[in-house]
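Support reply, case 0932

Customer input (verbatim):
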Amino acid sequence: MLESALQRLRDGLADTPYEGKVYLVGGYVRDKLLGRPLPSDVDLVLEGDALALAQFLYERGVASHPPVTFPRFGTAMVHVDDLAVELVTARAESYHDTSRKPAQVQPATLYEDALRRDFTVNTLLENLHTGEIVDPLGVGLQDLQAKRLRTPRDPRETFYEDPLRMLRAVRFAVQLGFTLDPAAADAIRAQAERLRIVSIERIQTEFTRLMDSPQAAAGLQMLLEMRLLAQFAEPLLPMVGCTQNDYHLYDVWGHSLKTVEGVDPTGLAMPAWELRLAALLHDVGKPATRTVDADGAVHFYEHDRVGAEIARNWLRALRYPTATLERVSKLVRMHMRPGFYTPQWSDAAVRRLIRDAGELLEPLLRLVEADIRAQRHDVAHADIAALRARIAQVQAAQSPARWRSPLTGEQIMRHFGLKPSPLVGQIKRHLEEQVIEGALQPDDTEHALRLAEAYLREARGASS
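Our regenerated output:
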């Protein structure tokens, strides 16, 4: 899809004044030279009017829709087949202190355009038609080969103009396996507070990209060391230096990073970054619940419950969607339960775990496996492989779809003359528990009515 769309661009601009004057730039060129998977979108730059080029592509039938233009910045967006293409006028920029958005933009040369970009390895150009690689600054290829991440200009200027680049520096360093230039690292530490002028939505997007990387744990440690984590993730900071009990080799922060590093998101329905978020946050409630007995024993009572609330509030502050809040906080809340598994568990206990975890059962087991691997190996832990086998056995004996109340809420209300209320849900939940315990068959409505009547009588007696 990518190459065919690029060929359509080449063909559409052949024998026109644009031929040989349009360049691919940024991540596409960098990743192609590194032999990495190519991005799903591309940037094109030219010394000329990008908006006019976008309109030209549409009129020629190359672009599938009229261009979306941003005249102030000299950029336009089109799609060629399914490929998103951003067209950029080579430009120079100036900034206000209180915003990462350029205050002034003016046309410039390719060299000047390269100077305004974030990192030298992202300034390399590929001529759309000839395939020639152009290194406007004369250092981009050298830095790419040396796996060095540095800014085109003084890093203090580059990061001051757009503080989001500081987060990008960390992400690129860990994703590409590059070494961050010491001057750039010093500039980030000195200006970390400036990240606060960036919108939380942009920070969340960049943080999500980092968490989507298998190298997320290394990136998180860099964020901490660069003082960036403190700018948007204060609830995580108490984990640093919070010592644990004898089951652990690391403090809470180190253990959490090991869990992020070890969790396996392969083949799951939920995004990899969400599972890594749950791994990062699974013990976030420990600092707030840490207690020490007279004999020196360390405990974290109800850290799962407290941690789920901290996780929910922090993710909400970062403007993550509700579905993410629900999934991550549920994994945090439930992460202790599989760890208590023993062969003495009843089938009902296994059924409850299956029911309560729902679609998150497999992510939960993956999280717990990583959690255990991040602890001391010479201490006995729950056998999650044995739990998996037990889950399969219980599911094979009876489908989880049958673990439901024989009576609907409407049937309960109609039979007992009740109005919609929490009591109806409590009765239904009680009947479901009886099914899970094996004391009630899921299709035995008569027995269910008797159990419901007894529950209702007891509930009314308790409230009288």
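We compared this against your earlier run and they match. Two observations from our side: The first strand starts at residue 22 and ends at 25. The domain at 147-232 is CATH 1.10.110.30 (Hydrophobic Seed Protein). Please reopen the case if you see a mismatch on your end.
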